[in-house]
Amino acid sequence: MKKSIIAFYKFVDINDPNALKLDLKKFLKETSILGTIILSKEGINGMCSSNEFEIKSFKGFLFKNTLFSDLEIKESFHLKAPFKKMSIKIKDEIVPIGDQEVKPKIKVGKYVEPEKWDEFISSEDVVVIDTRNDFEVELGSFEGSVNPKTKSFREFPIWWKKNRDKYQGKKIAMFCTGGIRCEKSTSYLINHGTTEVFHLKGGILNYFEKLAVNEKNKWKGECFVFDQRVSVTPQLMAGSFELCFGCRNPINEKDKSDFFYEPGVSCPKCHNTKSEKKILGLRERQKQTYLKFEREKIKL
User: Fold this and answer.
1) What does pTM read for this prediction?
2) How many CA atoms lie within 13 A of 56 on its CB side?
3) Are residues 122 and 214 in the same domain?
4) pLDDT (tens digit, 9 = 90+) per residue, 144-169?
5) Choosing from 48, 176, 244, 267, which is the catalytic residue?
6) Does a structural domain hold residue 103?
7) What is the mean pLDDT of the chain?
8) What distances in angstroms separate CA 73 from CA 47, 63, 94, 130, one per listed residue?
9) 176 belongs to the catalytic site
């Protein structure tokens, strides 16, 4: 049976995240829903998966809460659950940028609907910035976009301070996976004096959902997602990447045919970064994983 995968976020004042966590745990305890939900006083951010019946019930549970009655939920499907457990965490920020003055609920950039995005970013007076991390950009991005080459979202403000003078007089258009990082990045730019700031409503996943993306569109490649699918195609199907166990970076068939690729141990990106002790430990883990797989095959 195919699994429904939902992604959602909302910047909203939550006075007591701990009480909300207890309510969520009580509801989810009676289900087989897996995923991650992050709560903070600034809002909620989550990705969850289960069968369609349970996900429909969970959406109803969320909508009954007046804080989330207008919660926008993006949904896709996969043959198996892309999460291993259910985790609810309370953090200072639902997506960390490290600047307490950034408040998307109060101040945020102008939304551009997915259907108008390609045309908008084709204008000469628009600079398109990918706010995702460098390893995500490698899998796919919008043609002509700027890659800040950040390792984490917290580095984005540092990059902007160093580079903002290059984009004086331009409209700034930003995008990310599901829209949440752009809520923070556009709010940050506005706080620091940039007025013409725009972002893709609902992010790349909403763009995929609303458009029949093909080679004529501005998007090229696949989109990294933070679950066991690793990446999705523009048709919202599981992509061609998997994670290297050694460094947790996405790898494809080309990487796996490289001389430096060793299953469960290393890939071309991390082959010379580990101690001999670490390599031996990874090799032993890979051996035990293989033996377990063989035993399970015999049982079948």
Assistant:
1) 0.89
2) 3
3) yes
4) 999 999 999 999 999 999 999 999 99
5) 176
6) no
7) 93
8) 10, 10, 16, 22
9) yes
